[in-house]
Amino acid sequence: MNQEWNDDDLEQKVDLRLWKKLLQYTLKYRKTGTTFLFVAFGLAICDLCFPLITGNLISEIEEKGGNVDFAPYLWMYGCATFFLCIFIYGFILCAGKIRTHVSYDIRKDAFQQLQELSFSFYDTKPVGWLMARLTSDCNRLSNILAWGVMDFIWGMMLMATISTFMLIYNWKLALTILSVIPVLFVISVYFRKKILTTSRLVRKANSKLTASYNESILGVRTTKVFVRNEENLRDFDTLAEGMQNHSVHNAILSAVYLPIVLTLGSVAIAVILAQGGHYVTLGALSVGEVVMFIYYAQMFFAPVQELSAWFAELQMAQASAERVLSLIESEPEVRDTEKVLAKIAESGNDGHTAEIGRIEFEDVEFQYRSGPTIIEKMNLVIEAGQSIALVGATGGGKSTLVNLLCRFYEPTGGRILFDGIDYRERSLTWLQSNLGIVLQQPHLFSGRISDNIRYGKLEATQEEIEEASHLAGAHEFIMNLDHGYDTEVGEGGIQLSLGEKQLVSFARAVLKQPKLMVMDEATSSIDTETEKKIQKGLEKVLKGRTSIVIAHRLSTIRSADRILVIEKGKIMEQGTHSALIKAGGKYHDLYTEQSMRDIVRIDTVMGS
Ligand SMILES: Nc1ncnc2c1ncn2[C@@H]1O[C@H](COP(=O)(O)OP(=O)(O)O)[C@@H](O)[C@H]1O
Ligand SMILES: [Mg+2]
Fold first, then answer.
1. Ligand 1: nearest atom to the Cα of 520
2. Domain CATH number, residue 569
3. Any residues with Cβ below 6 Å from ligand 1, and which?
């Protein structure tokens, strides 16, 4: 499993700085917030009225016996209830409003961030991790930041008004009730730590489990073919068991915590009964007043319990908060420098020509995340309009080279220059808007084929789309589908074969008419016949453009201006096809080997 799971360390303390940052999401909604403060205060006053009315009524009955006029009490009760309803309505409306906005804002920020983060980020975070951030963690946080904060404000307000009122009415009884607070606090702090720790273990186990699901689902074919079902199940069992243990431990802690809070509340009420009864016998208090205090005590503990529940939730969400914030705050490794950003703000572009000119690799070195060196001191010049082909054994660093050129990663040593300017001094938008990429594993989005082709040029007409498809050799297969260009491709293009996906993504790149075209084994899953057709279209498309092609079949790159043989991160040979064949080196060997294989294949096909 991935080592990066340890990114939220168990030993970290509850981080106020973190919550302060997240609270900004709530504080943004000032107007609703202010309305809410008013509503919460109204609610607290209403709550305060009921015991007061009841207490007074009991005292009056105690005093006058049977001849009490109930009408004013009924009226007061009615009024208090009416206002209570209005305030509760306002309360739920405000909290709901804030919750929706906060939830939207957090998700938007997280999603935006995911789009901006560099490829290197995705190398270290499993998809399950990211999915959990965007779904359960975001949900949890927006709940706390809306309902939690609202409940906290309401609870504090209610407790403050009740304590003030009780202290004024009878400070001795009031102090009895209030003395429970510190005890409650100490217990809370104790449980807080414990619950926090187990909840983190649970969440950690949970995201491991999600990632395991994800990997198993994505790799279900491989699993079956290699008969790995049993072992996978065992791995899964271990993960699930760990999660179960932690969950049970967590549940026990929570189960112990709340009854203790409840017991404390009951003890406080018992003490009031004893102490209040004593005052009644002394004549210092009426029965009605004691009843009133019992009511207040009960009301007092309601928000305390509510708050402690939220508090537990807050403790649990600390881990979520850390992870969501770590996501929102992680800096993309590849991004525009301050200088470039300033220039864009000033003049709308990065201040250089829009053209893709001469490309130069100057002592370029690269390694993925402190891994081994993949590219070693590479020097390379590509003139504008040249077509370059990269060949060599798998793992030699061809894709890495292309990744560097596209600035998906930046060199860890040396420079890559466009027209003599380091590409880090230019904007990412400039480079990427000039770039057309076709990958071996192309990604299609769910939607129609035409939508997928249009992805690179949103304003393209149907004619343009079809023309691009013709050039890319995709038109024929698309027309053979039931709904032609309107065929739905399914999530990730699952309805199409890999070769078909490659053709669609090829059409997409052609439509964009990029100045720099990059193809990484783009035609690996396309049959030789279709490939030949593409070859013709390609020649038209690439005319006048700079192109870098990583070839799967060497026969397709014979016409390249220059062929580079890449091995172990180094350029071993370079030159035109004929020059390299003449030289009789590595390329010659690779080429004859492949040609032999092709001839053998054709022979067997013909023979059968
Ligand atoms: N995202 C990555 N993180 C770490 N190592 C990688 C990553 N991508 C490729 N590599 C490593 O870099 C080396 C070169 O890979 P690559 O450039 O894909 O070769 P090629 O395209 O020539 O087959 C390989 O040893 C591979 O294991
Ligand atoms: Mg590759």
1. 21
2. 3.40.50.300
3. 123, 368, 371, 374, 394-400
